[in-house]
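Journal club side-thread
Mid-discussion, someone asked how the predicted structure for our own chain would compare to the paper's figures. Pasting it here so we can look after the session.
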Amino acid sequence: MGKRLGLPDHAVTIALAAALQESKLRNLDHGDLDSLGIFQQRPSQGWGTASQVMVPRYAAAAFYGRLAIVAGWQDMAVTDAAQAVQRSAGPDAYARWEPEARLLAQAVTGEVAAGLSCTFPRPAGNRPAASLPAAMAQELGSAPLG
């Protein structure tokens, strides 16, 4: 999403650090007060409706939109930029996720060539589309990050 919006890789690292801290990249339907979604955004604080912040694409776009208006974010440390957007009660918490966020960002943005790949064996015969999530969970596992 960040690259599609024309933002540099640093923005993707910031977003990933925030999402890792807030939800460990899980789309949570609960949280502190009215916090929801991957970034634990609060509808009461103007992030969107409860339904909207539960859509990862919307939540990411909202995060990047707020990041883009933070003066000097491009030169900020990851934790400072994430805090400027999220306004967390634990402002330094994002720092612990920076190394992992940077590695993920390098892989998903193409900053590191072939940093991430995913292949599945070709199934024999036709499988119904409904079995895809089960096959992915079996192949990839379902353990949360962190």
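Post-session note: The radius of gyration is 17 Å.
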